[in-house]
Protein backbone atom coordinates (compact mmCIF):
# COMPACT_ATOMS: atom_id res chain seq x y z
CA UNK A 1 0.00 0.00 0.00
CA UNK A 2 2.80 2.33 0.87
CA UNK A 3 4.49 1.48 -2.36
CA UNK A 4 1.48 2.46 -4.48
CA UNK A 5 1.15 5.82 -2.77
CA UNK A 6 4.80 6.58 -3.37
CA UNK A 7 4.47 5.92 -7.08
CA UNK A 8 1.34 8.05 -7.34
CA UNK A 9 3.02 10.97 -5.59
CA UNK A 10 6.02 10.78 -7.95
CA UNK A 11 3.72 10.85 -10.99
CA UNK A 12 1.94 13.98 -9.77
CA UNK A 13 5.22 15.79 -9.28
CA UNK A 14 6.30 14.98 -12.90
CA UNK A 15 3.00 16.16 -14.37
CA UNK A 16 3.13 19.50 -12.55
CA UNK A 17 6.69 20.14 -13.77
CA UNK A 18 5.66 20.01 -17.42
CA UNK A 19 3.62 23.29 -17.20
CA UNK A 20 6.49 25.46 -15.78
CA UNK A 21 8.38 27.84 -18.21
CA UNK A 22 11.88 26.87 -19.00
CA UNK A 23 14.45 29.72 -19.10
CA UNK A 24 16.95 29.72 -21.97
CA UNK A 25 20.50 30.27 -20.97
CA UNK A 26 21.55 31.77 -24.45
CA UNK A 27 19.33 34.41 -26.15
CA UNK A 28 18.75 33.87 -29.90
CA UNK A 29 19.27 36.99 -32.21
CA UNK A 30 16.57 37.64 -34.72
CA UNK A 31 17.54 36.57 -38.27
CA UNK A 32 18.44 39.41 -40.76
CA UNK A 33 16.35 39.52 -43.91
CA UNK A 34 18.06 38.02 -47.00
CA UNK A 35 18.38 40.51 -49.90
CA UNK A 36 18.17 38.74 -53.28
CA UNK A 37 20.12 40.33 -56.21
CA UNK A 38 18.02 41.82 -59.01
CA UNK A 39 18.84 40.67 -62.56
CA UNK A 40 17.79 42.74 -65.59
CA UNK A 41 17.11 40.67 -68.68
CA UNK A 42 18.75 42.06 -71.88
CA UNK A 43 16.40 43.48 -74.47
CA UNK A 44 15.62 40.94 -77.15
CA UNK A 45 15.62 42.08 -80.80
CA UNK A 46 12.31 42.51 -82.42
CA UNK A 47 11.16 39.48 -84.28
CA UNK A 48 11.42 40.29 -88.03
CA UNK A 49 8.09 40.38 -89.71
CA UNK A 50 9.59 39.66 -93.15
CA UNK A 51 12.30 37.45 -94.58
CA UNK A 52 15.86 38.82 -94.32
CA UNK A 53 17.31 40.50 -97.44
CA UNK A 54 19.54 38.22 -99.47
CA UNK A 55 23.26 38.84 -99.35
CA UNK A 56 24.38 40.64 -102.51
CA UNK A 57 27.24 39.08 -104.42
CA UNK A 58 29.62 41.71 -105.82
CA UNK A 59 29.73 41.84 -109.63
CA UNK A 60 33.26 41.67 -111.00
CA UNK A 61 34.03 43.92 -113.96
CA UNK A 62 36.00 41.96 -116.58
CA UNK A 63 39.36 43.35 -117.50
CA UNK A 64 39.61 44.77 -121.01
CA UNK A 65 40.82 42.34 -123.66
CA UNK A 66 44.43 42.68 -124.71
CA UNK A 67 43.61 41.45 -128.23
CA UNK A 68 43.88 44.41 -130.60
CA UNK A 69 40.94 45.10 -132.89
CA UNK A 70 42.06 44.43 -136.44
CA UNK A 71 42.10 47.53 -138.64
CA UNK A 72 40.11 47.62 -141.85
CA UNK A 73 42.55 47.47 -144.79
CA UNK A 74 42.68 50.52 -147.03
CA UNK A 75 43.45 50.93 -150.72
CA UNK A 76 44.36 53.94 -152.81
CA UNK A 77 43.68 54.01 -156.54
CA UNK A 78 46.86 54.37 -158.58
CA UNK A 79 44.90 55.65 -161.59
CA UNK A 80 41.33 56.11 -162.75
CA UNK A 81 39.67 52.82 -161.75
CA UNK A 82 36.27 51.48 -162.78
CA UNK A 83 34.32 49.62 -160.09
CA UNK A 84 31.88 46.87 -161.06
CA UNK A 85 28.90 45.00 -159.62
CA UNK A 86 31.03 41.83 -159.80
CA UNK A 87 34.71 40.86 -159.94
CA UNK A 88 35.11 41.26 -163.71
CA UNK A 89 34.64 43.84 -166.44
CA UNK A 90 31.57 42.14 -167.91
CA UNK A 91 29.50 43.17 -164.89
CA UNK A 92 27.65 46.47 -164.79
CA UNK A 93 29.92 49.39 -163.98
CA UNK A 94 28.84 50.94 -160.68
CA UNK A 95 31.18 53.92 -160.62
CA UNK A 96 34.67 55.08 -161.55
CA UNK A 97 37.15 56.25 -158.90
CA UNK A 98 39.61 59.02 -159.77
CA UNK A 99 43.32 58.42 -159.16
CA UNK A 100 44.27 58.92 -155.51
CA UNK A 101 40.88 57.87 -154.06
CA UNK A 102 41.14 56.12 -150.66
CA UNK A 103 38.85 53.09 -150.29
CA UNK A 104 38.01 50.67 -147.48
CA UNK A 105 38.64 47.05 -148.52
CA UNK A 106 35.79 44.79 -147.34
CA UNK A 107 36.47 41.41 -148.96
CA UNK A 108 38.53 39.38 -151.42
CA UNK A 109 37.16 37.71 -154.52
CA UNK A 110 37.74 34.04 -155.29
CA UNK A 111 41.03 34.52 -157.14
CA UNK A 112 40.41 36.92 -160.02
CA UNK A 113 42.46 39.77 -158.58
CA UNK A 114 39.53 42.00 -157.54
CA UNK A 115 38.71 43.52 -154.14
CA UNK A 116 35.28 44.40 -152.77
CA UNK A 117 35.49 48.04 -151.66
CA UNK A 118 33.18 50.70 -150.26
CA UNK A 119 32.33 53.79 -152.29
CA UNK A 120 33.32 56.84 -150.20
CA UNK A 121 31.13 59.10 -152.37
CA UNK A 122 27.96 57.06 -151.82
CA UNK A 123 27.09 55.74 -148.32
CA UNK A 124 26.20 52.04 -148.29
CA UNK A 125 27.39 51.41 -151.85
CA UNK A 126 30.12 48.83 -152.55
CA UNK A 127 31.62 47.38 -155.70
CA UNK A 128 34.55 45.40 -157.12
CA UNK A 129 37.82 47.11 -158.12
CA UNK A 130 40.81 45.49 -159.78
CA UNK A 131 43.67 44.93 -157.33
CA UNK A 132 46.32 45.85 -159.91
CA UNK A 133 44.94 49.41 -159.89
CA UNK A 134 45.18 49.71 -156.10
CA UNK A 135 47.92 50.35 -153.56
CA UNK A 136 46.96 48.32 -150.49
CA UNK A 137 47.78 49.00 -146.84
CA UNK A 138 46.90 46.60 -144.03
CA UNK A 139 46.29 42.86 -143.93
CA UNK A 140 43.86 41.45 -146.51
CA UNK A 141 44.51 37.73 -145.93
CA UNK A 142 41.94 37.51 -143.12
CA UNK A 143 39.18 39.24 -145.11
CA UNK A 144 36.13 37.18 -146.11
CA UNK A 145 35.87 35.89 -149.65
CA UNK A 146 32.65 36.81 -151.41
CA UNK A 147 31.02 34.75 -154.13
CA UNK A 148 29.85 37.14 -156.82
CA UNK A 149 26.45 36.86 -158.50
CA UNK A 150 26.38 35.22 -161.93
CA UNK A 151 27.93 37.44 -164.58
CA UNK A 152 25.90 38.46 -167.66
CA UNK A 153 28.74 37.46 -170.00
CA UNK A 154 31.79 35.18 -169.75
CA UNK A 155 34.47 36.99 -167.75
CA UNK A 156 37.67 38.10 -169.44
CA UNK A 157 40.51 35.66 -168.86
CA UNK A 158 43.83 34.63 -170.34
CA UNK A 159 46.68 32.19 -169.98
CA UNK A 160 50.37 33.15 -170.20
CA UNK A 161 53.46 31.07 -170.89
CA UNK A 162 57.16 31.98 -171.03
CA UNK A 163 58.43 31.47 -174.59
CA UNK A 164 62.10 32.53 -174.83
CA UNK A 165 64.56 35.42 -174.66
CA UNK A 166 63.98 37.47 -177.79
CA UNK A 167 67.15 39.23 -178.95
CA UNK A 168 67.01 42.46 -180.93
CA UNK A 169 70.50 43.84 -181.57
CA UNK A 170 72.17 44.11 -178.16
CA UNK A 171 68.90 43.98 -176.26
CA UNK A 172 67.33 40.85 -174.81
CA UNK A 173 63.55 40.79 -174.21
CA UNK A 174 61.67 38.19 -172.16
CA UNK A 175 58.92 36.89 -174.47
CA UNK A 176 55.53 35.47 -173.44
CA UNK A 177 52.73 33.82 -175.40
CA UNK A 178 49.24 35.01 -174.41
CA UNK A 179 46.04 33.05 -175.07
CA UNK A 180 42.64 34.76 -174.70
CA UNK A 181 40.55 32.18 -172.84
CA UNK A 182 37.73 34.49 -171.69
CA UNK A 183 34.61 36.09 -173.14
CA UNK A 184 35.89 39.56 -174.11
CA UNK A 185 38.53 40.97 -176.44
CA UNK A 186 41.70 42.52 -174.97
CA UNK A 187 42.92 45.86 -176.32
CA UNK A 188 45.82 46.77 -174.02
CA UNK A 189 48.35 45.15 -171.70
CA UNK A 190 50.95 45.89 -169.03
CA UNK A 191 54.01 43.81 -168.21
CA UNK A 192 56.53 44.22 -165.39
CA UNK A 193 59.49 41.90 -164.75
CA UNK A 194 61.49 42.06 -161.50
CA UNK A 195 64.79 40.36 -160.70
CA UNK A 196 63.96 38.68 -157.37
CA UNK A 197 67.54 38.80 -156.11
CA UNK A 198 68.59 42.34 -157.06
CA UNK A 199 65.18 44.02 -157.14
CA UNK A 200 65.88 45.56 -160.55
CA UNK A 201 62.81 45.74 -162.79
CA UNK A 202 61.59 46.77 -166.24
CA UNK A 203 58.03 47.50 -167.40
CA UNK A 204 55.94 48.74 -170.31
CA UNK A 205 52.32 49.21 -171.42
CA UNK A 206 51.13 48.44 -174.97
CA UNK A 207 47.91 48.62 -177.02
CA UNK A 208 48.72 45.59 -179.19
CA UNK A 209 49.92 41.99 -178.89
CA UNK A 210 52.17 41.94 -181.96
CA UNK A 211 54.56 39.21 -182.99
CA UNK A 212 58.10 40.60 -183.47
CA UNK A 213 60.73 39.18 -185.79
CA UNK A 214 64.13 40.68 -186.63
CA UNK A 215 63.24 43.76 -184.58
CA UNK A 216 60.13 44.53 -186.66
CA UNK A 217 56.45 43.70 -186.36
CA UNK A 218 55.86 40.42 -188.16
CA UNK A 219 52.18 40.23 -187.27
CA UNK A 220 49.94 42.95 -185.92
CA UNK A 221 47.50 41.65 -183.31
CA UNK A 222 45.07 44.28 -182.05
CA UNK A 223 42.76 43.52 -180.42
CA UNK A 224 43.49 40.10 -178.98
CA UNK A 225 40.19 38.43 -179.77
CA UNK A 226 38.40 35.71 -177.82
CA UNK A 227 40.27 32.45 -178.44
CA UNK A 228 43.15 34.28 -180.15
CA UNK A 229 46.91 34.18 -179.45
CA UNK A 230 49.20 37.16 -178.93
CA UNK A 231 52.60 38.11 -177.54
CA UNK A 232 54.05 40.30 -174.82
CA UNK A 233 57.69 41.32 -174.20
CA UNK A 234 59.33 42.51 -171.00
CA UNK A 235 61.84 45.31 -171.82
CA UNK A 236 65.57 44.53 -171.57
CA UNK A 237 67.52 44.60 -168.30
CA UNK A 238 70.85 46.39 -168.04
CA UNK A 239 72.51 43.18 -166.82
CA UNK A 240 72.37 39.63 -168.06
CA UNK A 241 69.20 37.95 -166.77
CA UNK A 242 69.65 34.43 -168.14
CA UNK A 243 69.18 31.89 -165.38
CA UNK A 244 68.00 34.52 -162.87
CA UNK A 245 64.61 34.20 -161.15
CA UNK A 246 62.16 36.81 -162.40
CA UNK A 247 58.76 37.72 -160.98
CA UNK A 248 56.56 38.83 -163.89
CA UNK A 249 53.21 40.64 -163.57
CA UNK A 250 50.95 40.56 -166.64
CA UNK A 251 47.74 42.63 -166.85
CA UNK A 252 45.37 42.60 -169.83
CA UNK A 253 42.50 45.09 -170.22
CA UNK A 254 39.43 45.19 -172.44
CA UNK A 255 39.94 48.85 -173.45
CA UNK A 256 42.98 50.72 -174.70
CA UNK A 257 45.37 52.47 -172.31
CA UNK A 258 44.74 49.95 -169.54
CA UNK A 259 41.07 50.84 -169.10
CA UNK A 260 37.90 48.76 -168.97
CA UNK A 261 37.97 45.33 -167.35
CA UNK A 262 41.50 44.21 -166.47
CA UNK A 263 42.76 40.76 -165.48
CA UNK A 264 46.13 40.10 -163.82
CA UNK A 265 48.43 37.11 -163.49
CA UNK A 266 51.82 36.73 -161.78
CA UNK A 267 54.44 34.24 -162.96
CA UNK A 268 57.93 33.25 -161.81
CA UNK A 269 60.35 32.27 -164.58
CA UNK A 270 64.07 31.66 -165.17
CA UNK A 271 64.88 32.87 -168.71
CA UNK A 272 67.33 30.76 -170.71
Provide a descriptive summary of the structure in words.
- The structure is a single chain.
- The chain is mainly β and 272 residues long.
- Among the domains are: 74-137, SH3 Domains (SH3 type barrels, Roll); 158-269, Immunoglobulin-like (Sandwich), CATH 2.60.40.
- The protein contains one helix and 16 strands.
- The termini are far apart.
Question: Concise description?
Answer:
It contains 1 helix and 16 strands. With 272 residues, it is mainly beta.
Topology summary:
Elements: H1 2-17, E1 74-77, E2 81-84, E3 93-97, E4 102-108, E5 114-118, E6 126-130, E7 134-137, E8 158-168, E9 171-180, E10 188-195, E11 201-206, E12 211-213, E13 216-219, E14 229-234, E15 246-255, E16 259-269
Antiparallel strand pairs: 1-4, 1-7, 2-3, 2-6, 4-5, 5-6, 8-9, 9-14, 10-11, 10-15, 12-13, 15-16
Give descriptors for this structure.
272 residues; 38% strand; 1 helix; seven-stranded antiparallel beta sheet; SH3 type barrels; Immunoglobulin-like; mainly beta; single chain; globular
Rg over alpha carbons: 57 Å
Runs in which pLDDT lies below 50 for 5 or more consecutive residues are 18-27
Number of helices: 1
CATH T-level topology of the domain at 158-269: Immunoglobulin-like
Mean pLDDT: 81
N-end to C-end Cα span: 186 Å
| Largest sheet report | 7 strands, antiparallel
Side by side, the strands of the main sheet go 3-2-6-5-4-1-7
Q: How many strands? A: 16
Fraction of residues in β-strands? 35-45%
The CATH architecture of the domain at 158-269 can be given as Sandwich
The first-level CATH class of the domain at 158-269 is given as: Mainly Beta
Structural class designation? mainly beta
Shape: globular
- Helix % is under 10%
